[in-house]
Amino acid sequence: MVESIAFALVGLVVAAAALLGLPGYFRASRPTVAGTALAAALLGGAVAHFCLGGRHPVVAVAFAALSAGVLTSLLARPDLAAGRAPAHRHRPHRAGAHRAPRRHRPA
């Protein structure tokens, strides 16, 4: 019971750190980020608790934090963050510039 509360608090701390530390990276809604971190911490902590037999609660809490951080980072979109130009992936096409289609050499 106490470990479950610790796992939930770890998940909420990870969500708050993600949303306050890098707010431009998370385009998902705040409840989505918080729910993902909370669910990941609870699930990761429960898996660690059962795998370790409940003998190492500090390791289980650390694994809850790790799993919450990893799954929350999947929601991050640094390519859409404010201040980044969207043209970093593609070169703009020039108007009127036309290349002949590439022809493949026969094999």
Any overview of this molecule?
The protein has one domain (2-81). With 107 residues, it is mainly α. It is elongated. The mean pLDDT is 85. The chain has helices at 2-21, 30-51, 57-73. The N and C termini lie far apart (68 Å). Helices cover 55% and strands 0% of the residues. Helix 1 (2-21) packs antiparallel against helix 2 (30-51) and helix 1 (2-21) packs parallel to helix 3 (57-73). It is built from 3 helices and no strands.
Salient structural properties:
mainly alpha; transmembrane helix; membrane; about 110 residues; transmembrane
Write the topology of this structure.
Elements: H1 2-21, H2 30-51, H3 57-73
Helix pairs in contact: 1-2, 1-3, 2-3
Keywords: Membrane, Transmembrane, Transmembrane helix
Total individual domains: 1
Distance between the termini: 68 Å
In terms of structural class, how would the helical and strand content be classed? mainly alpha
* Rg for CA atoms: 22 Å
Biased composition (Basic residues): 86-107
Region (Disordered): 82-107
Keywords: Membrane, Transmembrane, Transmembrane helix
Transmembrane segments: 6-26, 33-52, 58-76
In short:
Residues 82-107 are annotated as: Disordered. The chain is an all-alpha fold and 107 residues long.
